[in-house]
Every structure is written in C-alpha cells, then in structure tokens.
Write a structure and sequence with these properties.
The two termini are 25 Å apart. This protein is mostly helical. The chain is globular and about 60 Å long. It has ten helices and no strands. It has one domain. InterPro entries: ABC-2_transporter_component (IPR051449), ABC2_TM (IPR013525), ABC2_TM_bact-type (IPR047817), ABC_2_transport (IPR000412). Keywords: Antibiotic resistance, Cell membrane, Membrane, Transmembrane, Transmembrane helix, Transport. This is Transport permease protein. It comes from Nocardioides terrae.
Length: 246
C-alpha cells in the first residue's frame, strides 16, 4: 500500500465529483432538505416533539443511504467504462484504490454531516443534550460505512441497476431494525438479535445517545463498532475486487 497512490486516487475522485453538480447536490443539499421537510411535517403536531425524537436517527440514516448509492453507482460506472480496469492495470494495490475512494467520500461526508447537523441544530431547533460536534463525527463515520458497503457491493454487480438492487437486501432491513420505528429493546427476541449485528443500529444508538443524556462513553463505544464494520467492509471489498471486468 502507498500513501501517495491513495492520495492520488482520492484527488482524482474529488476532481471527478466536482465536475458533476448533480452528485454534489445529492451529497450535500439533499440530507439538509430532507431534515427540513421532516421538521415541517411535525412542526404543528400537538403533544410530543416528534422531530426531536426522530431527527437524530435520521441524521445517521440519510448519510448512510446517500453514500451507499453514490459510491456503488460511481464504482460501477467506472468499471463499465473500463476506467477501473485501466487503473488496476497500473502498479496500484486494490487497497490503495478503495482507501482513496473512502478518503475522498469521507471528506465529502464531513461536509455533508456538518451541513445536515448545522441545519438541524442551528435552524430547525433540534434539541441536543450532548456535544453538537459529536453528531457530525458520528455522521461522518456512518457515511464512511455507507461508502465502504457500497464499494463492497460494487464487486458483485455488473450494472448500476444491479448495484441499486442491493438496497432492499442490505440497506432497507437495517433501516427497519435500527430502532427508528420500534425501540430495539421492544423488538421480538429474534429481531433484536439480528439488530445487534447490523452496523446502522449502532450509528442510530450513538446519535440518540448524543441527543439524550447518555454519557459520551456509550457514544464512543457505538462509534467504534461502526468504524470496525467500515474497516471490515473495506477489507472485504479489497479481497473481492476484480482486476479484470468479466
């Protein structure tokens, strides 16, 4: 593995995305607009402030979904165009390529998380008991997890449509079981055990811990689990990435 080559791949990906304004809008503005839409939906509802209850979980879910889609589709586009095969024909390790992608999308995720958290807390009045900056840190880690999972999935798809088809299998179950709809401790035992091995559950727990009154120790423990899943997905992606397009 070479740091110089990893940085070169990251710079190339960032330059490519900069020339694609639609992808930039999807990455940065869409999560902010979705949070604003959520606030608008619940603004005039009587009783419990549903926005404060649901928004932390969605701050974890939206970056995960967006980065999974963008990464998997971008990688498949480069494979179908032959770019990926030409890159891997060079003296470039698979891990250099995947880490370069993760670094580039990680930087974009930092911007995305800062914007989404800033809009939610600063403009929409999200009540957060813990450090606000820690919300952005968890958002970045969750977005990197989505990036790593998208890179891993792209190794098993031959078209962009096939990459999107992995969403119902890998992303939607995590959304249903992460605690957004039903608290994890209130789920049936089997579903609770399944939820315990899904990375998005720990990202949502971390966000809820920051918004609530839990100690930051619980947050860092959940964050470490999310980071571990991201590293594992990158390692699996490097192991399954083909140097030749079939």
């Amino acid at each position: 593995m070479s740091v110089r080559r990893t940085l070169a791949v990251a710079a190339r990906v960032l330059a490519q995305i900069r020339r694609d304004p639609r992808t930039l809008v999807l990455l940065v503005l869409v999560p902010c607009l979705l949070m604003a839409l959520l606030w608008w939906m619940f603004h005039d509802q009587p009783g419990v402030d549903l926005f404060d209850r649901i928004a932390p979980a969605l701050l974890a879910i939206f970056p995960f979904i967006v980065m999974f889609l963008v990464t998997s589709v971008t990688t498949l586009r480069e494979r179908s165009g032959g770019t990926l095969e030409r890159l891997l024909a060079m003296p470039l390790a698979k891990l250099d390529l995947l880490l370069g992608y993760a670094l580039a999308f990680g930087l974009l995720a930092a911007i995305q998380a800062a914007c989404a958290v800033g809009v939610s807390v600063g403009f929409l009045g999200l009540d957060v008991q813990g450090p606000v900056w820690l919300l952005a840190v968890v958002g970045v880690a969750d977005a990197v997890l989505g990036t790593a999972l998208g890179l891993f999935v792209s190794a098993f798809a031959r078209t962009e449509f096939q990459a999107v088809q992995f969403m119902p299998a890998l992303v939607v179950p995590q959304i249903l079981l992460c605690g957004l709809l039903v608290p994890r401790d209130a789920m049936p035992d089997l579903l609770g055990r399944i939820s315990d091995v899904l990375p998005l559950s720990y990202a949502v727990d971390a966000m809820n811990d920051i918004a609530g009154s839990s100690s930051t120790g619980d947050v860092w423990q959940n964050l470490a689990v999310v980071a571990g899943f991201a590293v594992a997905c990158l390692a699996l992606g490097a192991a399954t990435l083909r140097r030749r397009t079939p």
